[in-house]
Amino acid sequence: MNEYVKIFLSSMLIDNVVFIQFLALCxxxxxxxxxxxANGMGVATSFVMVLATAVTYPLYNFIxxxxxxxxxxxxxxxxxxxSLVQLVEFYLKKSAPALYSSMGVYLALITTNxxxxxxxxxxxxxxxSFTESIVYSLGSAAGFIIAMVLMxxxxxxxxxxxxxxxxxxxxxLFVAAGLLSMAFAGFSGLIK
Amino acid sequence: xxxxxxLFKNGLMRENPLLVLMIGLCSSLAVTTKFxxxxxxxxxxxxxxxxxxxxxxxxxxxxxxxxRIPVFIIIIATFVTIVDLLMKAxxxxxxKALGVFIPLIVVNCIIMGRVxxxxxxxxxxxxxxxxxxxxxxYLWVLTGISIVRELLGSGTFIGMTxxxxxxxxxxxxxxxxxxxxxAMFIAASRAFRLMAEKKxxxxxxxxxxxxxxxxx
Lengths: 192, 216
Description:
The structure holds 2 protein chains of 2 kinds. Chain A is mostly helical. Chain A has helices at residues 2-14, 25-30, 35-67, 73-95, 97-110, 114-125, 130-158, 170-185. By secondary structure, chain B is mainly α. Chain B has helices at residues 2-14, 25-30, 35-58, 68-90, 92-98, 109-119, 124-154, 170-173, 175-215, and strands at residues 156-157, 160-161. In chain B, a hairpin with a 2-residue loop joins strand 1 and strand 2. The model of chain B has no long low-confidence stretch (mean pLDDT 85). The A-B interface holds A 19-26, 29-30, 71-75, 78-79, 82, 111-114, 117-118, 121-122, 125, 165-167, 169-175, 177-179, 181-182, 185 and B 22-27, 29-30, 69-70, 73-74, 77-78, 80-81, 84-85, 100, 103-104, 106-109, 112, 171, 174-180, 182-184, 186-188, 190-191, 194.
């Protein structure tokens, strides 16, 4: 049990997907214009992230590995993620239209979200067990939502600040992200 | 000839994928702690971009429109796997340093974006020139960032020690430094563009004033 808590905390805070690993910066910059949007994107991404890990892990260990096809890892994973996103989209459209209308816009963008592919690949390269992989993906997903919501909140404040013309817009966002990343680096002492 | 030159130049500055279009950011910040890593990543991406754009431009009339995205992904993933395996075989250290970011080229928005918006509509020559321009545009920003971070973070310049350890700032070789240096790069390019615009504006005003004066 302790092991799982450790994996969860370290993937959520210490190795935060956005601030420490530099993954998923495109949605981090593009979708954090307001808190609600950031939250929607975060939840949709997390959903696909956990689902993708649950699918790719058995796929790698029970199909690719016995057949000696490890080199097809990247290719199969990205195809699985892309089709998974499509399936989720169809399913939500049919069964939960309300959820779909709030999440639908983001789903299409998720295929090219590098955090998802990276998390599935990391689970394999760290040789986690199935449960550990799921815990790891849950932690990363939580870290992603935290990052998105934090950034959206900060952006609300930045809008009111007086900033020189050439730093306005994206540069100041990256400075803010750098400061947040410094704060997250402080978590590294949490687990020995 | 001139047309190709403009296309090529486009990617270098005016439509630089990192500084202006803001796509494909993840890899550019994560790997730029050392000059070799930045250069290696830039070359890997340029190779994949070039090969995919050329191949997709060649096949653009054969690929059915409704399934074009999966086809693009398969083509890109194939070239990424080639690069990944080659690097692991011949440049073990570099492959280790770049880690997961080589397979992540598959989902790099630069490649998908250029393939979808450019290569699938234009001729092979144009696609090749565009790929080179975009690739080199990515490459120079990457090497620029990594030179700054390496110099300030670990005191070396392309592997040679320049600053002694007392003067280095570990901040720059860690994650926050990546964000910060990149912010400065965008700010600098923005300031440069603002200055150029102002200058162009001033010249234009001067010209209109002169012509008005002549008319009077």
